[in-house]
Amino acid sequence: MGNNKRRSSPTKETKEKETAPVLLAAEPSNKKWQNWWIRTITTFMMIGTFFTILASGHIWVILMVIAIQTTVYNEVIQIADIPAKERNVKWFKTMSWYFLVTTTYFLYGESIIYYFEQIVLVDAFLLPFAVHHRFISFVLYTIGFVFFVMNLQKGLYKRQFAQYGWTHMALLLIVFQSHFIVNNILEGLIWFVLPTSLVICNDIFAYVCGFFWGKTQLIQLSPKKTVEGFLGAWICTLIFGFLWTSLLMRWDYMVCPVKDLSTSAWSSISCDPKNPVFITVPWSIPETWSWAISYVFKQQVTQVWIAPIQLHAIVMACFASLIAPFGGFFASGVKRAFNVKDFGTSIPGHGGLTDRMDCQFLMGLFSFMYYQSFIKTYHLSVGSILGTVINGLPLKDQLELLERFLTYFVNQGILDPSVVEKCGTQALTEAAKAVFEQ
Predict the structure, then answer these.
(1) Which of 195, 289, 324, 358 could form a disulfide with 367 if both were Cys (CB 3.0 to 4.6 A apart)?
(2) Is 341 helix (H, G, I), strand (E, B) or coil?
(3) Residue 252: C-alpha distances to residues 51, 61, 266, 370 (Å)
(4) Which of 176, 147, 172 is nearest to 160 (CA)?
């Protein structure tokens, strides 16, 4: 009987085999294909919704990003909220949302002031908020900080500081990076659509290649990710990125920086001059390649016309395929730490919104940094000059500048002297003096 008992008790190896994850390619056929169809249907629904919002206009795209950011933040906070309730940590959720509002106000306020200076700095109501924006944000954060310290409870210090750190990690990895995604939108929709599409493409083909050919586990944190899916998705994303960029760069709605948030895909938009990155230029082909291409096409080919953005897209595709997935692996590590399968159940077959956006935040930050470093063309704008005038010149000099501008326009024949006189140049000057004397 002792021998039978020993035989019936599972060994360590048996336990490991029972708990070992089953790769997609090795799953039972019925389960595998059922999950396939659920994921496919919800994927097409999400893509359809994405393009509908994209065509509706810049403001709707920005609101979509903010809504996604808020939902993902909520899902991440919910994971830590359960142990907080168990240990009776008061005000954790309230403080988490307070810090979200404060951080959102600071980050998006910075973007609005930077991109819409010409509007914000001439509005009597908005001007004080713009000038003192950072100080206001600091005061709001300080209020939350003081409230946190005042609510520290004896015996719960370690747990409360852990929750405080968790909240700030969520703010850094979600809200901070989402802010840069919105900046990408304001620089031109292509800098939002291209990176987002590359991650979606890579995710789809990683699943497809892993579904059919995945045999080798890639990383322990995410058991169903395979080397075959990882490499197959990389190749497919490179091809997709080059071709997709060729289409997007032809549409002014995609490439022009935002000047009016009310524009949509059906609005008349043009930007002149365009960023040189969108202009095709001839590239000489190496002699060995030229011979091979000429042999295939039966005519001599010595150069091809490629826009620099197409080559930048290849770099972005490499990041989306080789680095951005580590955002997903990081999220998988968080789920393992809290022993949950998914961040939520809002998307059938996918889990929560966080399970789909985990790579997008890192990709959005990379796209912003890459664009600012290698692509953006810097030039003076009305907003930047206006900001210098309003913030850098005293009132007397501002009024003198206005008078000199009017004089310049008259001397250049741009304005009719009678029109200026009708507006009252002398009256403006007298009013300026009166204001200055007060």
Answers:
(1) 195
(2) coil
(3) 16, 17, 11, 21
(4) 147
Token pair belonging to 333 = 């590590």
Among 309, 289, 420, residue whose Cα is nearest residue 367: 309
Q: What span, in angstroms and rounded, lies between the C-alpha atoms of 346 and 323?
A: 26
What residue segments make up the domains of the chain, in order of their start?
25-384, 393-437
Strand ranges in 58-190 using DSSP code E only, listed in sequence order: none
| Three-state secondary-structure class, residue 214 | coil
Looking at 232-280, which runs of residues are DSSP E strands? none
401: which 2 tokens?
A: 């500048």
Buried b (16+ CB within 10 A) or exposed e, 391-412: eeeeeeeebeeeeeebeeebee
The residue behind tokens 């930048």 is: 312
The strand pairing partners of 219, in sequence order, are 222
Say whether 138 sits in a helix, a strand or coil.
Answer: helix
Q: CA-based diameter of the chain, in Å?
A: 115
95 or 352, which is more confident:
95
Contact 328, 297 (CB under 8 A): no
Chain-centroid distance, C-alpha 244:
19
89-101 pLDDT tens trace: 677 888 999 999 9
> Phi, psi at residue 222, to the nearest 5°?
-125, 85
Structure tokens at 121: 């700095």
pLDDT band at 369 (very low <50, low <70, confident <90, very high): very high
User: What does the alpha-carbon distance between residue 357 and residue 363 come to, in Å, rounded to a whole number?
Assistant: 10
Q: What is the pLDDT of residues 3-58, one digit of tens each?
A: 444 444 445 444 444 445 556 555 666 666 667 677 778 878 888 888 899 999 99
Mean pLDDT highest for which of 110-114, 270-274, 309-313?
309-313
Single pTM value for the model: 0.77
- Rg over CA atoms, the chain: 29
Whole-angstrom Cα distance, residue 183 to residue 109?
A: 11
Amino acid letter for position 184: N
